Amino acid sequence: MSLLILGLVLFLGVHSVRIVADGWRSAFIARRGLGAWKGLYSVASLVGFVLIVWGYGQARAQPVLLWTPIPGAAHAAALLTLVAFVLLTAKDVPGNGIKARVHHPMVLGVKVWAFAHLLANHTLADLLLFGSFLVWSIASFAAARRRDRAAGTVYPPGRASRTLLTVAVGAALWLVFTLWLHAWLIGVRPFG
Q: What is the DSSP letter of 69?
C-alpha cells in the first residue's frame, strides 16, 4: 500500500502545484524556463504514475474490504464513465459546447470517473486511489474556475456540430475501452 500512497502523493502533488503554489510555479518558470518546468513535471508525473499502477496492483492482490458492494453500482459506474469519456474528449475537440459551458471538461471528467469507480469498488486501495483523485479533481476544478474569474477568461460559444462530434467520439472511445481495453489493461471486465 505504501507504493500506492507514494505514487499518489507524487503524481497528484505535482498536479496540485497550480492549486496550492501557482506563484511558485510561475517564479520557477521565469527563472528556469518552461522547458525545465515541463521536464520536471513530466518526470515526476511518470514516476508517480508507475508507482500508482505498481502499488495498486500489489494492493489488489491482498484486498482490504471496507463495505459490501452496492447492488447496481457497477451499472451506474459504467454510465458515469461514459459521461467521463465525453468530458475527457471535450478537452480536445475545439469549438464544442461542452467545453464552452463547463470550461474545464478534463478535470470534471476525472471527477466523474473517480466518483464512478468509488461507487463500484469497495476496498481500501480503491478508496485511496479513487478517493484521492476525486478530492484532487474537486480542488483542481475550483482553482481553475477561480483563475478564470481572476483573469477574466471568456470561453467562446460552442457549435452544435462540434458538440455532437465530441459526444460521438467520447462514446466510441468509451465503448472500445469498456468492452476490450479495460479487461486487457486493468484485468477487470466492467460488464461481467
A: P
Give 9-34 pLDDT, tens digit per residue: 999 999 999 999 999 999 999 999 99
Q: Which residues pair with 81 in a beta bridge?
A: none
Distance CA 132, CA 140 (A): 12
CA-based nearest residue to 123, from 55, 177, 75? 55
Rounded to two decimals, the pTM is: 0.92
**Mean pLDDT taken over the chain:** 95
Distances (CA, A) of 37 to 23, 42, 119, 136, 151: 13, 8, 36, 21, 22
Q: What percent of the chain has pLDDT over 70?
A: 99
Report the C-alpha gap between 141 and 158 in whole angstroms: 20
120-142, pLDDT tens digit by residue?
Answer: 999 999 999 999 999 999 999 99
Q: Residues of 19-32 as b/e, b for ≥16 C-beta within 10 angstroms?
A: beeeeeeeebeeee
CB 166 within 8 A of CB 92: no
157 CB neighbour count, 10 Å cutoff: 9
CB 110 within 8 A of CB 130: no
- Collapsed DSSP state (helix, strand, coil) of residue 65: strand
